[in-house]
């Protein structure tokens, strides 16, 4: 029986390169490559998209939409862009956070890969909103810091090349100052919220890693105490190998949580910090691991197994 085939459309970009690294040495699937020099050949792209059993799109939003329109075969698509994360007819690729999601991923022909910030925020919020511990209209604030690789090749060059006229000398900067970051719609939709959170993202001078923080006033929730919030998350993720909820005593023993600690990993760790009056929910992950390329490969494996 012939092995399935995979085409990574945009394999020479940041996310695509990391997917290629994760797929290197795999013997259960054949990779269809498009040389860098041919990447603008539309007809060749169309041919590869339709010849593959699976296609992972590592493209800007408009290019991802165009790629989907090119597919006239039974190719099963995983889109890592923002284009389809709240679109009808597309499954959402976060197997651990949402009930029934793994089954939807397994059966899907059109799958949207979550955003990196969204992965951290949804992992913390969706189980607590579903358990009716955090009200769906809670006035949430989400603070996050990411490694600069999340901005793709352009930001990598801006951060790493001092000779560039676009060089960013800052060690840390806040952006999306108009509070309209593209990940907010999927956070609202996939977490079950009715009120848009205030989302304040930042980029720091490290390549990979991410920390997402969600502070809560316990008296504005239905949890009563920190332990109940932690218990709900622990029960939700029990038995999961990729998402881990740190025990309270482990969190309390730490002097700090470091965004870079999960760089190079495809796993994620959740912490419930604070006390019975104020809690800070924290997710640690790699913005290119569980936040992008690692998640895409995980979703591919679920689809292949189904």
Question: In words, what does this structure look like?
Answer:
With 306 residues, the chain is an alpha/beta fold. The chain is built from 10 helices and 13 strands. It has helices at 14-23, 42-51, 61-70, 101-107, 116-130, 152-160, 184-191, 226-236, 248-253, 289-305; strands at residues 5-9, 30-32, 54-57, 76-79, 91-92, 110-112, 141-147, 172-174, 198-204, 210-217, 243-245, 268-274, 278-285. The strands form 2 sheets. It has a 7-stranded mixed beta sheet with strand order 8-9-7-10-13-12-11. It is globular and about 60 Å long. The relative contact order is 0.16. The mean pLDDT is 95.
Query: Biggest sheet, strands in spatial order?
Result: 8-9-7-10-13-12-11
Q: State the shape.
A: globular
Fraction in beta strands? 15-25%
- Round the Cα radius of gyration to an integer and report it: 20 Å
Q: pLDDT under 50 segments (min length 5)?
A: none
Total of DSSP H or I helical runs spanning 4+ residues: 10
């Amino acid at each position: 029986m012939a092995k399935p085939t995979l085409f990574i459309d945009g394999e020479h970009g940041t996310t695509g390169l990391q997917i290629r690294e994760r797929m290197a040495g795999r013997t259960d699937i054949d990779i269809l490559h498009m040389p860098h020099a041919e990447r603008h050949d539309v007809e060749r792209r169309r041919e590869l998209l339709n010849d593959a059993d699976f296609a992972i799109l590592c493209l800007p939003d408009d290019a991802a939409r165009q790629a989907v329109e090119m597919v006239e075969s039974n190719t099963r698509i995983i889109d890592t862009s923002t284009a389809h994360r709240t679109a009808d007819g597309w499954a959402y690729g976060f197997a651990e956070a949402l009930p029934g999601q793994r089954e939807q991923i397994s059966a899907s022909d059109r799958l949207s890969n979550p955003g990196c910030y969204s992965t951290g925020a949804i992992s913390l919020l969706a189980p607590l909103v579903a358990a009716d511990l955090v009200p769906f209209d809670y006035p949430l604030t989400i603070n996050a810091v990411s490694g600069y690789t999340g901005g793709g090749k352009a930001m990598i060059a801006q951060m790493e090349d001092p000779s560039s006229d676009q060089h960013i000398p800052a060690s840390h900067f806040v952006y999306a100052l108009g509070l309209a970051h593209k990940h907010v719609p999927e956070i609202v939709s996939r977490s079950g919220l009715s009120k848009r959170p205030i989302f304040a993202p930042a980029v720091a001078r490290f390549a990979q890693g991410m920390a997402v923080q969600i502070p809560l006033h316990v008296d504005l929730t239905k949890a009563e105490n920190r332990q109940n919030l932690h218990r709900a998350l622990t029960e939700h993720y029990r038995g999961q190998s990729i998402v881990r909820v740190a025990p309270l005593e482990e969190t309390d023993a730490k002097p700090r949580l470091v965004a870079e600690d999960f760089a190079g990993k495809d796993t994620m760790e959740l912490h419930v910090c604070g006390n019975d009056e104020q809690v800070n929910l924290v997710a640690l992950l790699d913005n290119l691991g569980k936040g992008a390329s690692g998640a895409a490969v995980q979703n591919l494996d679920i689809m292949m197994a189904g």
